[in-house]
Amino acid sequence: MTVPVPPLTPPYHVVVFTSLLRAPDPAYEAMAQRMVALARDAPGFLGMDSARGTDGLGITVSYWTDEAAIAAWKADTRHLAAQRLGNADWYASYSLHVARVERAYSGPRDTETPAS
Amino acid sequence: MTVPVPPLTPPYHVVVFTSLLRAPDPAYEAMAQRMVALARDAPGFLGMDSARGTDGLGITVSYWTDEAAIAAWKADTRHLAAQRLGNADWYASYSLHVARVERAYSGPRDTETPAS
């Protein structure tokens, strides 16, 4: 699942959310898609990518203009409700990293956009 | 696929590598596993997680002590050969973000390790 990230000049921020599901659950997938739809409209949201393998390990990376935008999305009441459900019902474990992007490139043709 | 990341105190670095495969290829998977085995022994490597969904979108996040360790791993000759093959044969597209981790936590029980 992807919300395309436009070409951006660092610095901006990335949130890396890694989770292991206890068991596959269509209700989880529906909630995850609702959260993507909400995040798209959140101030400062730039784009995201998400993948989950057959072993249940999933990684979602989302890109944001700054830390304040990430904090506001974390505190969104609809997102908070989803976080509570995730903790209670869905996740065997998860980790979250907030990081400041310093450089980025894409390919097959290398196109680097170094920090300004 | 995971190489467990021990509890760490920021700052450290994360590399987010997102790729879309042209087509499933067992040779790609074998190469990817060889690269993980090599990266584990690379100086400054801290851990990684990797997931690929049925749509062909894969995300690998690897954690490193610093930028110098990331640059050295990028320049490893065995890794360079794999990058060339990826560009030529395997990837429809990819993007890579290098970012400095500012804070991290994990759950279900929230355990935050803020930057020192």
UniProtKB/TrEMBL annotation, chains A, B:
GO molecular function: monooxygenase activity
Residue ranges occupied by any ABM domain in the UniProt entry: 27-84
EC number: 1.14.-.-
Enzyme class name: oxidoreductase
Pfam family, one: ABM
Coiled coil: none
Entry keywords, A to Z: Monooxygenase, Oxidoreductase
Name the UniProt record assigns to this protein: Antibiotic biosynthesis monooxygenase
